[in-house]
Amino acid sequence: MKLKYFDLSLVDPGFIPSIWEYSKLIIPECPTIFSYTPNETAIKICGLERADKKIKVKNIPGNVKMIRMVSSRETSFMISPDLMGFMFHYPDTNEYASLVRAVKAIVYKSLRLYNVYLEENDNDIYFIKDGMRKKFFGMMDDATYDGWRVAIFTLTLNFDSELANKIYNFDDEKFTKKGEVFDISKIVGGLYEVAHINRNEVTNNIIQKLADRYDLEVSEENLPDNELSKMNDFAYKSSNREWVLYGK
């Protein structure tokens, strides 16, 4: 079986929800993976919680977009041109039950050439710098439609902690200690802080190792016009401000 691979390169952040919804818009004929990089900075909101629950919306600069993806998990994070993004649509079968663990192992192996010391916890991976453990990788997956699932995983190469500190509400246990708010740069970072990462090399390694793990043959293709049209239509419909900010 083949692994259909779409390398989208730079994409508008508003198109990313369409990649997440791909297996609802177009039922895949085989496991399908996308790689992409946002062409500008944006705030991604997942789930149906209000954006202002964790984000100081009034502090978001006018040039920073906001997008929303439907998921069973509620979270939000920044995306930017210094991010490597992957979205994998796969059958909901026993064969793929270990996908999250497999992806984490593949990322470890793909970064081994750069001599970066890594640690993991749950779905996150961290590097160590100056005694601090900094998150640069995150992953989540969800059911989609008719026996398919989707997983998103990202690697941050450079993290804008100044913007993050400005816009996020650090009001939960993850970002507080003894009542004092952390500087987010002490817990989140980008791989460029510890290594020079070759994007293309790491991307190709991840795609090939994922294919090898599930005995698939990589088939790099271009999005057909009819699929691209459906995805663009969905992206347009998903740009409604009330939906993006408040999930309604």
Top keywords for this entry?
globular; about 250 residues; BirA Bifunctional Protein, domain 2; 7 helices; alpha+beta
Walk me through what this model shows:
There is one protein chain. The protein is of the alpha+beta class and about 250 residues long. It has a single domain (about 1-245), classed as Bira Bifunctional Protein, Domain 2 (BirA Bifunctional Protein, domain 2, 2-Layer Sandwich), CATH 3.30.930. It is built from seven helices and 13 strands. The protein is globular.
Radius of gyration: 18 Å
Strand content: 25-35%
Main sheet specs: 8 strands, mixed
Domain count = 1
Please state the overall shape, judged from the principal axes of the Cα atoms.
Answer: globular
Mean pLDDT: 92
Q: Tell me the number of strands.
A: 13
CATH-level-4 superfamily name: Bira Bifunctional Protein, Domain 2
User: Class by helix and strand content?
Assistant: alpha+beta
- Name the CATH class: Alpha Beta
Low-confidence stretches: none
Separate helix tally:
7
H/E element sequence = EHHEEEEEHEEEEHEEHEHH
Q: How helical, in percent, are the residues?
A: 25-40%
- Which strands sit side by side, in order, in the main sheet? 7-8-9-10-6-2-1-13
Which fold name is given in CATH as the topology? BirA Bifunctional Protein, domain 2
Distance between the termini: 40 Å
User: Architecture, according to CATH?
Assistant: 2-Layer Sandwich
